[in-house]
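Protocol step 4 of 5: obtain the predicted structure for the target chain.
Materials: sequence only (see below). No template structures provided, no constraints applied. The aim of this step is simply to have a reference model before the mutagenesis design in step 5. Sequence pasted as it appears in the construct record:
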Amino acid sequence: MVVDAVLFDWGGTLTPWCPPDEQSWLRVARRLVPAAAERAAEALAAAEFAVWQRSRLEQRSGTMAEIFTAAGIDPTPAAYDVFAAEVEHATRTDPEAVALLTALRERGVRVGVLSNTTWTRAHHEAIFARDGVLDLIDGAVYTSELEVTKPHPAAFRSAMTAVGVSDPARCVFVGDRTFDDIHGAGSLGMRTVLVPHSTIPATQRGHTDGVPDAVVQRLSELLAVVDGWRTA
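Step 4 output (structure tokens):
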């Protein structure tokens, strides 16, 4: 098998899974609209839930601006900064990522990211820059910039385009979700690798659990899998 590119999911894959914090939106609302914090927090949570339900059921994307606006909060850069500070603890890149991405690129394998996200590109790139991996990524696609989300094939094709490859059979997709990542990428013809450490809420599980071609418990195990496919 020729491997032209390895594409990664972000949350739960390149960054370890972090369980949702039910008080997170309340802390954000207290900073932004202290006089109506509880009501705003409920509206923010409801808007976020609606966005992810739409993603799961219809593969249609959403944005943080949409979530803020639905809660009656002006989606200013200052508001986004408050949100970014609240979630910062859940954004740390896996310590094994730098060595893995470096080794893949040394082999001539392109590295890409495809994330179902409401966050902006600038937010994600700031995270990658902070953790020393931004320059190791050849192309990234964030569904906040698309009309669709994984597992829609157009999302995966956008990620392929971003790293300059055209044949899904020569791509590997690595993710933590059996519906969004494994089913979606596998349906397009990619080989898939599951990182099975995330506890996916029932409200985020899709109608199909894809079967991965390989399973790794740590990112550092992925290189041997890819090398094995490249030499088979």
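Step 4 remarks: Residues 25 and 201 are 18 Å apart (CA to CA). The first strand starts at residue 5 and ends at 8.
Proceed to step 5.
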